[in-house]
Structure formats: C-alpha cells, structure tokens
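Lab channel / #folding
Pinned by the channel admin:
"Please post every new chain as: sequence first, then the structure tokens as a reply. Keep commentary short and put observations after the output so the thread stays searchable."

First post following the new format, from NK:
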Amino acid sequence: MKAIFITQAGGPEVLQLQETEKPSPQEHEVLLKIKAAGVNRSDILTRENPDAYGDDLPSAKIPGLEVSGVIKAIGSQVSNFKIDDKVCALVAGGGYAEYICVDERLCLPIPEALSFVEAASLPEVIFTVWFNLFQQANLKSGEKLLIHGGTSGVGVMGLQIAKALEIETFATAGSSEKIEFLKNIGVSKAINYKDEDFQEVLKDEKLDVIFDMVGGDYTNKNLKLLQPKGRLVNINAMKSAEVTIDLWQVISKNISLTGSLLKPQPIDVKAKIAKEIKAEVWPLFTSEEIKPVVYKKFPLSKANEAHKLMESSNHIGKIILEV
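Reply from TO:
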C-alpha cells in the first residue's frame, strides 16, 4: 500500500509518499480501506518532532489521527462491525495511508448523508471536544463557554456542539471573514483578537469554561474572565508554554486548571469517549443541529501542501486528504 512517511524531522517537504506493507487486523481490530483522512495541527508537531511519542505509535513514521473508509477485514473477536461497513475512526497515527487497522471500539458508523470526506473531519475534533469540555471540565447546559481559535477544526465543532446542548458560546478569531463565520453559526460574541482585547470585551460575561490552544499571556486573562468555580482547559500553547499567572485568581475563585493530549491516552479512555459521543453527539447530525465544515481537500500525495495550509492558519474548519 501507499502511505505518507515522515522521512525526517522538518518542514512539509519531509512528507513523502512511499510503499509499505498492508497491515493485518488483530483479534479486536478492523482493517479499514481509507477513503479520507483529516489533517490536524498535532500532525505538524509530529512532523517537526517524530520521536516525541516514541516508536510504539504509528505516528512516529506515518501521521494522521482520523480517518474514514470501508471495513475490508475483521479480527476474530470483532462483534460490532462487519465487512463493507462504512465507518470513521480515531487513530494514534498512521492515517495518511491507503489502509489501517483500528480497534473496533474507536470506530463509529458514518452519520447518514455524510460523505467520506466529511466523516474524516469528525473523530479527532469531536473526541478532543468531548474529552476536554464534557468529561474533564464537566461543561453543562446553561453555562457559558469561550473558545480561543474559534474557526479551527476543534473550535468550529466545539462551538456547534455546545450551542446544540444549550450552552452560550463566545469565541476569538483573527480576521473579519472568520468573525462573520462565527456569527453565522450562532456565537453570541465573536472577537477579532487583532482589533480588540477579548478580556475587555468579555469582562462582564461571567464565563464558566474557557477552552484555550494559545497559552502565553492569554492564560492570566482567561483566569480573570472565569467566574467562581470556572474551568480553564488547555490543549496547546501556540503562543508560549511559559506563563506567569496570578495564583490568587485560582485560589480566590476556586478555579480548575487542566489540559490534555488526546493521542497518547489509553484505548480504554478513548473507547469511553467514543461510547458517549455515539450516544450524545451522533444524534445531532441526524437533527442537523451540527454539521462538518470542510475548508479544502487535497489528494494524499499532496499532504505537504495540506500542511502548508494548516500552518498558514488561513482556513476555517477542516483540511482533508482524499485517498
């Protein structure tokens, strides 16, 4: 089979299409013929530092954390799927390829009426949103949520899910086009961080949860915006991981500060997320309260071009590779 390999640490040019052996499923796995794969910012971090998670994860050589496709073989203990079922799946790397083996617990049936391209845009972002906002931060109906990077893949899906579950949403983004998009999906206040100070704009909102992938000086501002028993969730530190915080904000308001990486989580943790997503989020596709937002698709062989677009941050929603 063909797959995109990280040939060495570096820029998009180190991604190369190569031949490799097609895998065979273990007893609890399915063999998926991949139709599309999502591109995520984590893939860039893996490309720049392929040894970060060690050689035990497939992402050490082949990136890609979410896929959609058709099941072509099943392990002896697989009970929930059969050959020719169409599914999307969360994987710990290896998605930029023609085939992949996935634990059946991390597969979800493709929602009716969605294409393979749309389905490939779902797993990584929805697992990330559900794990961080609803399992760790315990976000509830009636609360207020701020997402920084509102037009990222995670941001767009997080805002849609929150709104569908009756949570008031706020977001930041960096262009007038992105602000208009956020308003169109029902965000209560969308702030262009290049023109306005989000802390000043939102100072009277009494936010319950803030979902941040920026870090740096955003951290103290976030703490000041949270109301008592608020929760700050960090999934990246694109601005800076080195921060100085006003600890009294945390102490006096009983704030919870947390963060996570999804990729290295044990399969049992991911399986629990998948079960809850199928029950709580998948019906929202049927009711059309949420929908995939795909910005652009590339052929697998152009993975380097997809990474260049991701690094530019000019996109709204997801970037997809078609296999």
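NK: The mean pLDDT is 95.
TO: also worth noting, The chain has two domains: 2-122+292-322, 126-259.
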